Amino acid sequence: MFVAREHASRVQLHAIVGAPDIAIEILGFTRDRDEVVKRDLYERFRVPEYWIVDPDAKTVRILRREIGRYETVATFSDNDIFTSPTFPDLQLPLATIFA
């Protein structure tokens, strides 16, 4: 999870009180839970952005809340450079990440 500096008061000693700015899930054996249950939960609690990292498929999807529902705004694969509208200066070569 990521909480922006302007929302730092949400970070308490033992919990985050309120929604993080970004939730990031790395898929594994809980794939169904991450892509359905957690997605619905993050959507309901208005997490603005959700990244789904799939190490098996070597992909990263960015979902953003648009009119109350998540929409996939970008999908990156193994040979792409990952970027995010939230972090315009971030450039991650996925081939390096998934190596």
Q: Which spans have pLDDT < 50 for at least 5 consecutive residues? A: none
CATH topology term: tt1808, chain A
Spatial order of strands in the largest sheet: 1-2-3-4
**Mind telling me the CATH class?**
Alpha Beta
Outline of the structure:
The chain is α+β, with helices and mostly antiparallel strands and 99 residues long. Helix content is 18%, strand content 39%. It has a single domain, classed as tt1808, chain A (Alpha-Beta Complex), CATH 3.90.1570.10.
What this model shows, in words?
The protein has 99 residues and is an alpha+beta fold. The protein has one domain (5-83): tt1808, chain A, CATH 3.90.1570. It is 18% helix and 39% strand. It has helices at residues 31-44, 94-97, and strands spanning 22-26, 49-54, 59-66, 69-77, 81-84, 87-93. The strands form two sheets. Strands 1-2-3-4 form a four-stranded mixed beta sheet, with helices on one face. It has a two-stranded antiparallel ribbon with strand order 5-6. It is globular, with a radius of gyration of 14 Å. It starts with 21 loop residues before the first strand and ends with a helix. The model has no long low-confidence stretch (mean pLDDT 92).
